[in-house]
Amino acid sequence: MPDRARILIVDDEDYNRKLISGILTRQNYSIAEASNGEEALKQVEKFSPDLLLLDIKMPGMSGFDVAKRLKANDDFALIPIVMVTALSTLGHKAQALELGVDDFLTKPINVAELIARVRSLLKVRAYYKHMKNYQMELEIEVEKRTEQLRRSMEKIKAASLDTINRLSMAAEYKDEDTGAHIQRMSNYAAAVARRIGLKDQSVQAILYAAPMHDLGKIGIPDRILLKPGKLEPDEWKIMKQHTTIGAQILNESSSAFIRLGKVIALTHHEKWDGTGYPYGLKGKEILLTGRIVAIADVFDALISKRPYKEPFSLEKSFAIIEENSGAHFDPEVVRAFFTVKDEILLYKNKYHDSESRRKRRMTPFVRPEQAVGLDDKLHMV
Ligand SMILES: [Fe+2]
């Protein structure tokens, strides 16, 4: 059984209220009464009527005052109001219509007319309530689906980034002393990019794409990649190919991160003065992302321990970066790098090598002597 419709009868005369109340109770409506305007407003809040039968002329607040207050309140504005009055001049009707009153009944009450008007307005009210509920349910459903979609997209993005990261780690696995290198250098690069003024989205893209910079090392033979001594010129030539091999692996991807990864793989060894590789690009011919990643990658190589060198001190590493401003590095990028020095040091401490060494000890199929940091030979300035 649906709830009975609720009707509030507002009239200062007891007789009138009882009369209308009696008629409508017999029609199986739920009835509440108020004998003045103030009481009517309280009852509206308490009783939540579906319809108001409102006398115009009452002591204190008039029916017009009550209607005005209700129509001005978003919570109650859509409750239908029927003005019940002996006053039926055109002026009163116009005033009531202007306030948004829905209908009129003239005293003395005609029972059939009262029942017909009430029934008709309650139908409209029921339809409105149904539509409102439907709209609310729809909004909740849309919100729920949107949230589900957002979570799914986040999961897909996280899975995609995780895959990219693991692929990058796979490339670093043989020759880097530590997988923490890619975490540090990508965070340095993002910090510098943010300082230069790139938008958040671009900064984030650099953070996710920078780990792919050395992906092409997958294609370098172990005898060269893992050679403990100095590389011969022909070996060096092959080693340099890790840039173009990386770009080939990452070519024509539908993912924006991977497309940026390709740019980074191809340009992270180019130098501002044109003496880098693979193409010897000069100055702004090298895309900004490449210029940023170059400094992040070299700085991390300088401060890191390698089998053939102890880490350089921070002072020395910073000095080398400074000295190479305008030679290896874009001076503007160097300036940005130094202004985020504190942030760089935070990342250096956060992603330290010990964690990665511990992981490597737990991995039985890698011989310690394989963990040779030949990459430094590519990066050292
Ligand atoms: Fe590299």
How would you explain this protein's 3D organization?
- With 381 residues, the chain is α/β, with parallel strands linked by helices.
- The protein folds into 2 domains: 6-137, Rossmann fold (3-Layer(aba) Sandwich); 174-379, Orthogonal Bundle (Hypothetical protein af1432).
- It has 17 helices and 5 strands.
- It has helices at residues 14-26, 37-47, 63-71, 90-99, 111-173, 180-196, 200-209, 222-225, 233-240, 242-249, 256-267, 288-303, 314-323, 331-339, 341-350, 353-361, 375-379, and strands spanning 6-10, 30-34, 51-55, 81-85, 103-106.
- It has a 5-stranded parallel β-sheet with strand order 2-1-3-4-5, with helices on both faces.
- β4, α4 (90-99) and β5 form a beta-alpha-beta unit.
- α10 (242-249) runs antiparallel to α11 (256-267) and α11 packs across α12 (288-303).
- The longest helix has 63 residues, at 111-173.
- It is rod-shaped and about 115 Å long.
- The relative contact order is 0.08.
- Mean pLDDT is 87; it is low at 355-381.
- Fe (ii) ion binds next to loops.
- The site of fe (ii) ion (FE2) has 6 residues, from loops.
